[in-house]
Amino acid sequence: MADEQSVQQQTNQATDEVITAPAEKRLDLPEAASKDLTWEAGGQRIDYTATAAHLDVRTDTGSLIGKMFSLSYVAKPEGENADRPVTFCYNGGPGSSSVPVNLGGIGPRRVATDGTAHLSLPARVEDNPHTLLRQSDLVFLDALGTGYSAIAEGVDPKTVWGVDGDADAFARAIVAWLTANHRWGSPVYLFGESYGTIRNAVLMRVLGEKSVPVRGVVMLSAIFDWVQTLPGEDLYFLGMLPTFAATARYFGRAGKGTDEVQWFEDAMDFTERFYAPALLRGDRLPAREKASVARRISKLIGLPAEQIERCNLRVDLDTFRRSLLADEGLVTGRLDMRFTSVAPLPVQGSTSFFAAEDPADDAVEGVWHAAFRAHLDEIGFAGAPTYLVSNYSKVGVAWNWTHEEPGTEEPATAPNVTYDIAVAMKRNPTMRLLILGGRYDAATTYWNVVHDMSCLFLPPALKERVSYRLYGCGHMAYVDVPTLEAMGADLAEFYAL
């Protein structure tokens, strides 16, 4: 602990050195705005106050790092809420605002969806019958450099655009909110999606080091070990196979007549018992065995065995997305592989272009943004003309992936934040962890999460405090109404523990 505190003090000092005194005066942002609203669904009613405001993110010596935009929903009457949980929520990217998880998912209002259909304006906004507001007050935070969050003039973005700097900034914003709202007696929960789960993992440790006990952490569409994203890593291909199998079954290209749950479990089992050993042998795998494994994979993922064999049993995401429905002129989604769009023209062969062309994202993000801006108008918050729903082109591209993994004393450029999870849970054995995933999520594959957590060798008492839920959805679980209903019930159970 002492060594980590020393490292943190050095980080604080370095941060102070890049901040100039006049910077705070030049950071001109709108005043906070609040409005009393009412949520009603299923015969229940919650009166709450919605507040849009900026939180000061400051160093230990008081210098301004930036102002983090927050949108909070606090149930009334406020005087009786001292022991009501408060959950800090965010998306990932890195470079994403919190709009999707709010207006799309667990906020008191959501944009109504229609399966995998593309949404259009005007948005149909409804009181969310499965909102987490039923169990907890909610604070949605936008990372610095996204949404309406701003980095102070004179502050190097590198200090906050990275694994460790980002978690430190969020910890300071959470402390600021708890202080400003007199909520130090409230149980604290964290809810992160996608990169927000990496943030969660580091943040649950960092908050503990700042003497902020965390009651529970929800990981939606998680990724913990960044190694799986590196080119040529077999962990990548192992994680993809069950997701490919689920997708092939969904489109009728494999597993016809099988049960969705059992088909995925069988693919998970095949991955560990047969696929992983085959990949580990590389070109030492005899040709006959290679051909046999290719045929078995073909039956799972719906691509020709010959194509799989030519890929040396390693089918990447782009290849699968382009190939599965090629005979229909379609490509599948990435965030949610159930979504489809017309295949790009042959001249549009850019890999990076294709990776960013995601029908699952295109179908919902624009309408979510419009509904969010209308929501801010209702609250009376006069934001700037541009709200950065996603700023990956600046934030994500510049992200510093180096992470000081606890207990290793060595910076890792491809971090594995499960070590942060283990340290946080060992220090605070009263904490609970809920991991949620989707079978059709090719951005953060479920097999990898289960594998990464299993490699922590947690003692039984701590393992019992980790729960897993898997749904028939993609990355943004809340797009799917049946999943949203199931997730709402699982969250209610989790918060009741």
Automatic annotation (TrEMBL):
Compositionally biased residues, Polar residues: 1-15
What Pfam family is a match for this entry?
Peptidase_S10
What stretches pass through the bilayer?
none
Which InterPro entries does the record match to this protein?
AB_hydrolase_fold, Peptidase_S10
Top-rank taxon of the source lineage equals: Bacteria
The annotated region (Disordered) lies at 1-23
Q: Kindly provide the name given to this protein in its UniProt entry.
A: Peptidase S10
